[in-house]
Amino acid sequence: MKRGHPTKLSHAFSGALRTFSFWMANGSVGLPLLEGIDYRQALLESPSLMEEAYAIFANVIEFSDDGEPVNAKYAEYRAAQCIRRWCDSKYVVNPPFEEWEVELYAPAPKRDPKPWPEGVELTARSGPPTAISVKDY
After folding, report:
1. Does residue 30 form part of some domain?
2. Is the peptide bond before 6 cis (omega within 30 degrees of 0)?
């Protein structure tokens, strides 16, 4: 039976992405490469750094035929090299980034092609950010 929408990513990838995000937020991604480098202020000052680090992680990570990540630590390491280069102008990325590793692809469409569950709608409050509310809750 063919589904109307693509399957979900594996639980292992969800865990790899969650862990990468946690380490990014708490300042411990890419250890030992970023040992002693507090890059979190740089992330706040330049969101482009976070965008580039996540793009590298997403572009580098590979999956088995079962959808399991096979090189999540290497993808993290490459993202950490990006951060290190940003924070330390003397650092040389080795091997140099290839074009495909740093490619920034188009974002997802502003409206999901898959309908949202019944009763869930996007509503605007007094200003950004928008909130999701459940009708008749």
Report:
1. yes
2. no
Q: Are 20 and 79 in contact (CB under 8 A)?
A: yes
Mean pLDDT across the chain? 88
pLDDT band at 12 (very low <50, low <70, confident <90, very high): very high
Rounded alpha-carbon distances, angstroms, from residue 31 to 47, 74, 84, 109: 21, 12, 11, 35
For 38, residues 6+ apart whose C-beta sits below 8 A from its C-beta are 27
**Digit-coded pLDDT (tens) for 101-110:** 999 999 999 9
In a domain, 111, yes or no: no
Chain centroid to CA 34: how far?
18
Range of the domain at 86: 11-102
| Structural domain count, the chain | 1
Phi, psi of 71 (to 5 degrees): -145, 40
Q: Evaluate whether residue 60 is within a structural domain.
A: yes
Q: Are 59 and 102 in contact (CB under 8 A)?
A: yes
pLDDT given for residue 119 in this prediction: 87
Spatial contact of 10 and 66, defined as CB atoms under 8 Å apart: yes
128 in a domain, yes or no? no
